[in-house]
Amino acid sequence: MLPYAWTDLARWAGGQLTHAGTSPAARFVVDSRAVEPGDVFVALRGARQDGHAFLPEVFSRGASGCLVERTPPSVPDGVSVIRVPDALRALQSLARTHREKMTSTVIGITGSNGKTTTKEMLSHVLRAAGKRVLSTRGNLNSQIGLPLMMLEMSKSHTHAVLEMGASARGDIARLCELARPTVGVLTGIGRAHLEFFGSLAGVADAKWELVEALPSGGVAFLNADDPLLMDRKKSARCSVVTFGRSPGADVRAENIRQEPRVVFDLVMAGARRPVQLPVPGIFNVTNALAAAAVALWERVPLPSLTSALESFAPPPGRMEVRRRKDGTLFVLDAYNANPDSMAAGLRSFVDAYPERPRYAVLGSMLELGPHAEPEHRALGAGLAGLSFTAVYFVGAEATWVEEGYRAAGGRARFFATTDRIAFARALREGVESGAAVYFKGSRGARLEEFSTILFDNEGKD
Description:
By secondary structure, the protein is α/β, with parallel strands linked by helices. It has helices spanning 6-13, 55-60, 87-100, 115-128, 145-150, 171-179, 194-197, 200-213, 227-232, 284-297, 302-310, 339-352, 372-384, 398-407, 420-430, 448-456, and strands at 16-19, 28-29, 40-42, 65-68, 80-83, 105-110, 133-135, 159-163, 183-186, 219-223, 239-244, 251-258, 262-268, 271-276, 320-323, 329-332, 358-363, 390-394, 413-417, 436-440.
């Protein structure tokens, strides 16, 4: 429960309390289907739906109150209603005011790749060290999602680990204005959301807003292997700690190998400690180093840190390993994809399972704008240089990927289509028992649906 009176909430939201109820406010929620007794529903207006249309459903679910732009015609007894000019701005204003009353160390994490896994690793390590941690759930990293997470902060939290996403210049700056992080982590700059940012330099400008927002007494953790970040390092007004495989990184990895789990030596300030990550993917070394660097700064002892990294479980859809009873192994890495994460994931998967037949099940890389065709053709060309038994691709870019593959001399079985039904049938008939199967694509490709089909397709002979 939030420890505030409804009159205070109305004032901080810049609105009017038109109905004063008796129940205290619990969570703030924007999805009517997720409302539970005591929650406060924020009626946002979207391009396709208006939250005000769901107020009767919200009241029936036991909401304690609602934040609206139009007062509903009927309000149940005991329910509070705050009317505001703009529900989103009001939500953000509430989050900003709530943040001012909290003493937690706020850690902002952004980057083109790895920010969710880094956030999960760091949260896990801090909790293992006895810290009370609030961590971003799911994809609540936007102008809507981040305020919802911030309103769940309490004075018992020692740390808030908040993921920050961006689809336009200024997004990160606005999120930082709300969250006021004192620690920032930049996992790296990659070819993500090029439709919106135009170039790698544009991506770097957008992500660097996190560093620019940190106070002079704060600290920025930067990927030492990323030249775009290292070029900007001197412009940071706060302290900087680097992590990576580069010899000059403050926290670095040496002796990296994949067996298929990733093993490396964690090295910092003359100390060395072996680490075995419980997930495949060489790229996860960077995520682990970022988490380790922040944890060490927060005075987590090195033995506790490495032990926690070795007990980490990845979030669903990010190098999530599943095994079917007939021995077939599935690696689901399909929560998101861009050209850099796709290339790194494919290479790492091939290296991790050299003794098995390997299958790539791939989907579209979205939000690339005019870069979509050349990047999907490049994907096909890159696949031609990797050892796969078969490659499957589903999406509007299927022709580009296949043409890129054939032009580069690819010889493995290749099935590309826009037809999801035909794609599912081809997978069921084509993947042999005992193989290793890698799923990678943007969230919109919904590859998890095909992983479920294959996982349930038990025991083909």
